[in-house]
Amino acid sequence: MNATKFIGTFCILALLSCNEKTSESASENSSGEGITNQEPVRKNPEKGDVDFIFPKGEQGPEENFTGKAFHYAMVMPDSTYTTAVGNVYFEPGARSNWHSHPGGQILIITDGVGYHQLEGKPVDTIRKGDVIKCPPNLNHWHGASAEKGLQQIYLVPNTEKGIVDWKEAVTEEEYPQSK
Amino acid sequence: MNATKFIGTFCILALLSCNEKTSESASENSSGEGITNQEPVRKNPEKGDVDFIFPKGEQGPEENFTGKAFHYAMVMPDSTYTTAVGNVYFEPGARSNWHSHPGGQILIITDGVGYHQLEGKPVDTIRKGDVIKCPPNLNHWHGASAEKGLQQIYLVPNTEKGIVDWKEAVTEEEYPQSK
C-alpha cells in the first residue's frame, strides 16, 4: 500500500524532526513549549553551497535516492488538511528515484539548482523561485545538479488518495552529466 | 461567495505575477518559453530587511490589510491539486485582517519575524523556519512584527470548500506594540 510504504521510508524520519505547529501548539510557544525559538540550520556544514531555512533533517534511504538527500517533515498527512509538506535538501549529484503521487505533487524551489523530469518529457532545469507541478500518477524524478545542491519544499495534496509510489533509480544515462 | 471574493482581491494580482509551472510548461523551459531563468527579486529595495525567494508581487487591498502586504501567486486552485499556494511579504507593522479558511491554512515562514493569532488564543511570535496550521473556519490573522518584516508562503488546501472569508481589521489594541 502506498501510504504504508511512505510511512516505512519517510514518516519515521518525520517523527524525529517534525517542526509543525498545530493550532494547539501555536499558543504554547508563549510558554516556551513550542519550537519558535529553535535556531534554523543556516548552512550545510558539509557543503555550504545553498541556504537553509529549515533544519537539514535525516538522510533518505538508499532504496529511494541516489546520493545524499535529507528530508525534514513539516506537516504530516491527516484528514483535516489532506496535505503532506516537507523540505528535501539534495547534495550536488543527488536525486530521487522515479516515482509518482496518486494526488499529484507541487515543488517550491527555495535555493540552488537542480533537475526535474516528467516521464516522456525532456529534463527541466529548476532554480530558486521556481514552482513545479506534477500531475497525479505520472512518473517523475527531481534532484540537484551535479555542480550545485538543491533546496525544495514539497507539497503532496489529496493525501486521502495516497502519498507516493516509488520506482526504479534514475540511471547515469538519464541524469544530465557535468559539463 | 467566498471564492468570488478571493478572485476579486487576490486572483487578479495572481494573473499578473503567477510563477507556476504546469507539467506542460515545465518542458517548455528548455526552449526558452518558461520562466526558469527569471531572476528572483533578491532584496526589497524599499526595506531590505528580509530575503526574497520570489518576486515581490502586488500590494494587497486596503480592505483586507493594514499597512503594506505584497502577494505573489504561485499555484491557482483547481480540481486536480485542490490547493492554492502563494507568497506574502509583510512590511514591518503590516498585517492581514481577521479571516478564516473553509479548508484550513498552512503557513511556512521563510524569513523575518511576525505574529499569528488564532481567535481566542494569545498572539504567537513566528520566525524563519516555523510552520503554522490554522484549522478550518477558525478566525486568525498574521503579519509582520513592528520592527521587522515577514516572508511567508501560504497553502490553502481543500479549495473545493472555498478559499477565504475576510473579516474586520486587527486593531491597534490587538496588534502587539513596539517595545
Question: How is this structure best described in words?
Answer:
The structure is a homodimer of 179-residue chains. With 179 residues, the first copy, chain A, is mainly β. Helices cover 11% and strands 35% of the residues of chain A. Chain A has helices spanning 2-17, 23-26, and strands at residues 20-21, 58-59, 65-66, 69-75, 83-90, 95-96, 99-100, 105-118, 124-127, 131-134, 140-144, 150-157, 165-166. In chain A, a hairpin with a 7-residue loop joins strand 4 (69-75) and strand 5 (83-90). The model of chain A is unreliable at 1-20, 22-39 and 41-47 (pLDDT under 50).
Largest sheet of chain A: 8 strands, antiparallel
Count the E strands of chain A: 13
What's the overall average pLDDT of chain A, rounded?
A: 82
Based on secondary structure, the structural category of chain A is mainly beta
Oligomeric status: homodimer
Query: What is the 3D shape of chain A?
Result: globular
Query: Percent of residues of chain A in beta strands?
Result: 25-35%
Low-confidence stretches of chain A: 1-20, 22-39, 41-47
**Pair with the biggest interface:** A-B, 55 and 55 residues
Reading the helices and strands of chain A in chain order gives HEHEEEEEEEEEEEE
Question: Which value, in Å, is the CA radius of gyration of chain A?
Answer: 16 Å
Distance between the termini of chain A: 40 Å
